[in-house]
Write a structure and sequence with these properties.
0% of the residues lie in helices and 39% in strands. The chain has 165 residues and is mostly beta strands. The protein has a single domain, classed as Sortase (Sortase, Chain: A, Beta Barrel). The chain is globular, with a radius of gyration of 16 Å. The two termini are 32 Å apart. InterPro entries: Sortase, Sortase_dom-sf, Sortase_F. This is Class F sortase.
Amino acid sequence: MTPARRADSVVRPQPPVLAVLPSGRRVPISTVGTTPAGLLAVPEDIDVAGWWRGGSRLGDPFGSILVAAHVDSRTQGLGPFAELLSVEPGTRVRVESDRLRQTFEVESRRLVPQGTLVDDSWIFDASGDLRLTLVTCAPPYDSARGGYQNLAVVTALPLGPPETP
């Protein structure tokens, strides 16, 4: 007979509240939804990232934990997610919630054209293997065409299960 599993040993998924980027920069994360146009409602403050509440949470066994932030702002300058434009595979990102933390290793960085993500559902899909998906705007910038023309999408895989700090 195997011993019963203690109820407090079960991981209860939680929304992320902090990302620690490869540079060590700590970026607070707020919970966001979508705009009426169906776009992710990224926080205006470039020093704050947004976790899409329709995606996976820290501690979920599968799906995309989608976190996005502005790369820069005319009034606020360059944001911390600008480092995603040059992040390399193998670097690490840590994500924390109120009671959990998990380290992820960057697997890839891709440029995806701005616009509908219907053909790129892997970015936000709550199914499939667990992954952290970090998103920010990427060059080229063309004011006549509405701003940045690409998204930098960084996919990172967990190095292990979530831990309690």
